[in-house]
Write a structure and sequence with these properties.
By secondary structure, this protein is mainly beta. The protein is 0% helix and 51% strand. Strands 2, 4, 5, 6, 9, 10 and 11 form a seven-stranded mixed beta sheet that branches. A four-stranded antiparallel beta sheet has the order 1-3-8-7, with no helix packed on it. It starts with a strand and ends with a strand.
Length: 120
């Protein structure tokens, strides 16, 4: 069982910044993709950002230019730097780890989430 623990959420004013962290219980090098998702009350969970083992990144259009995902393999940690925050960013943010295994089947894991609230 792989454990993912998110931290860094909190209350921030519009235009402010936060950095979320996702600490894994083991090496994140075994995961092809580390990603962040978010879910606002009454809404579907949506993909926010992802980073591959090779360093390629992808973002949902609404956060492009504002959010940056990165991974530190030495610390077994994935980060999400969020700048220029707006109220629409308010949600519970979840860390996700995906390991692609073509023959035996892929597996993924989720953290418990951390609350981000953007409000004056």
């Amino acid at each position: 069982q792989v454990q993912l623990v998110e931290s860094g959420g909190g209350l921030v004013q519009p235009g402010g910044s936060l950095r979320l962290s996702c600490a894994a219980s083991g090496s994140i090098s075994v995961f092809n993709v580390m990603a962040w998702y978010r879910q606002a009350p009454g809404k579907q969970r949506e993909f926010v950002a992802g980073v591959t083992t090779g360093g390629s990144t992808n973002y949902v259009d609404s956060v492009k230019g504002r959010f940056t995902i990165s991974r530190d393999n030495a610390k077994n940690t994935v980060y999400l730097r969020m700048n220029s925050l707006i109220p629409e960013d308010t949600a519970v943010y979840y860390c996700n780890a995906l390991r692609i295994q073509p023959i035996v089947g892929s597996v993924d894991y989720w953290g418990q989430g951390t609350q981000v609230t953007v409000s004056a």
